[in-house]
TrEMBL record:
Signal peptide residues on this chain, from the entry's feature table: none
Keyword Lyase included in the entry's annotation: no
Source taxon at top rank: Bacteria
Alphabetic keyword roster: Membrane, Transmembrane, Transmembrane helix
InterPro entries registered for this protein in UniProt: SecYEG/CpoB_TPR, TPR-like_helical_dom_sf, TPR_rpt
Lineage of producing organism: Bacteria, Pseudomonadati, Spirochaetota, Spirochaetia, Leptospirales
Ancillary SecYEG translocon subunit/Cell division coordinator CpoB TPR domain mapped to chain residues: 42-220
The protein, known as: Ancillary SecYEG translocon subunit/Cell division coordinator CpoB TPR domain-containing protein
SUPFAM superfamilies assigned: TPR-like
Keyword hit for Translocase: no
Transmembrane segments: 44-64
Amino acid sequence: MKRYEVGQTAKEVKVDPYADFQGSKLELVLIKFFRSVAAHIKEVLIGVGVILLIILAIVTYVQYQESQFEKGTIALEALDKKFRLNPAIDLKEKIQAFEEVSSQYSSKKLELRLAKILSDLYARNGEFQKAADKLEWAGKKIDEPTEVKAYYFYLAGNLREREGNLAAAETNYSTAANLLTNTREANGFLAWSLYQTGRLQAKNGKKPEAIQSLKKVLEQDIKTPASDYNTVKQYATFLLVQLNQKG
C-alpha cells in the first residue's frame, strides 16, 4: 500500500497493510497467497488451463498407445494362427502381412515385438541388412533387461557378418560385450560376445585389439563353467595362438 506525506514535495511512503494483523503466521501467509492469486487471476487461470491440457494430452496419448498395442497384438495372434494352419504360405506373403501390421498400428511395444519377428523372416529370405536394421533399432529402444538389449545386438552382429559388413558386425558384438561387462549373471554370454568381438577385430586387421578381447574371454570368472563356456575358451585360445604365430 502506498501513502503520500504532505510537505514541500510529495514523498511516497510504503505502508505494510498487514502491520496490524494479529493472526498466526500461517493465516498471514494464506491471506497473502490468496490475495496474490486474486490480483493475477487471469495469469493463474491460463497457467492452470495449460497444465490441464498437457495432462489431458499425455493421458490421451498413453491410452491411444495401449489401444494400438492391444489391437496390434490381436492382429499378430490372428496372423500367427493363420500361418500355423497354412504352413505352405509363401515367405514373402508372411513378410508383407507383418509389415502391414507394423504400418497400421502405432505402438512402441508392438514395434519391438515385430522387430524380432520381421528380422527372423528377413533373414530367412536372405535380406540380412534389413534383418540387422530391425534388431539394431530394437536394441537401441530397449532399456532393460540389459541381457535382452545385448542379445539383440549380438544377433545383429551375426546378421551383419552374413551380410558381409564386418565393420558393423564388430561394432554390434562389441556393443553386446560392453553392455554385459558388469552383469555377473551373464558371464558365459559375455565370453561369447568378447570372442566374437575379438574374432571380427582380427578379420578387420585390428590384431592388438583382438588379442585384448580374446584374453578377456579367458579371464572370465565362472565357478561352474557350462560346456558352452569351455567351448568358447578353447576357440579363444586357438585364435590367440594363431595371432601370436603370425608375429
